[in-house]
Amino acid sequence: MTAFPESLDVPHRHVTAADWDDIYIVGDPHGCRAELEALCTSLGLTDDDLLVFVGDLVRKGPDSKGVVDRVRAADNMLTVRGNNEEKLLRGDKELDALTDDDLAWIASLPVVITLPETVVVHGGIDPRKPRADHSVDDFQNTRSLAPGGSYDPPYWFEEYAGPERVFFGHTVLEAPIVREHAVGLDTGCVYGGELTAYDWRADELIAVPAAETVVDRRDEKYVEPTQSVETEYTYATR
């Protein structure tokens, strides 16, 4: 059983792994519907397989509405609420294509999803304080442990030592981070990178290259993986 507290005062959901044949955890789509469809095809996804997203289904990419519709309509797709979903709920950002029903669905999303010995959040977990003291903002935005650090090291996943393995997005990576207790999956699909999935049972990575660069991030920070474990990394064919 995961040690994650059931008393956590943020929306969270537990997944019974035995209910699904294969389970895949997927990095930030950011409105890249075509790459999401390509990834589902490459995975050979069936109704008995589960896709769990680390959040940020929306914004920046060309088809946020399409991604939301795809995930909403699927009984075998779940997602945590990312910081870009939260921006819509708080009124900081708007997407005219999304309906009131879409926003109500977004508001209903958990901030944390757990599987056995596994936690899925958007941003991360701060190893310096108890889980029960984490806020929605902590789970959605944790990255640097430096005061006001943003993309400055040290990062939370360099200091975090379990007990659960945490799957996260939010931090744009040159390549996936695969560590004993942390797996980072935001490989910058909307920035011309990849949409990456982790096969939870097989401990393998599957990535679909972006069809185009929607947002140019050349002058912004990418994090290079450090101390990654050896894990098979397969590019899917489009």
How are the secondary structure elements laid out?
Layout: E1 12-14, E2 23-26, H1 33-43, E3 50-53, H2 64-73, E4 77-79, H3 83-89, H4 100-107, E5 112-115, E6 118-120, H5 136-141, H6 156-159, E7 165-168, E8 177-178, E9 182-184, E10 194-199, E11 204-209, E12 232-235
Parallel strand pairs: 1-5, 2-3, 3-4, 6-7, 7-9, 11-12
Antiparallel strand pairs: 2-10, 5-6, 8-9, 10-11
Work out the helicity level.
10-25%
The count of domains is: 1
Beta-strand share of residues: 15-25%
Please name the CATH architecture: 4-Layer Sandwich
Tell me, what's the shape? globular
Q: What is the CATH superfamily classification?
A: Metallo-dependent phosphatases
Poorly predicted runs are none
Main sheet summary: 6 strands, mixed
| Radius of gyration using CA atoms only | 16 Å
- Could you name the CATH class? Alpha Beta
CATH topology: Purple Acid Phosphatase, chain A, domain 2
Walk across the major sheet and give the strand order: 1-5-6-7-9-8
How many E strands? 12
Mean pLDDT: 92
Instruction: Tell me the span between the first and last alpha carbons.
Output: 38 Å
Structural class assignment? alpha/beta
Q: Helix-strand pattern, N to C?
A: EEHEHEHHEEHHEEEEEE
Count the DSSP helices: 6
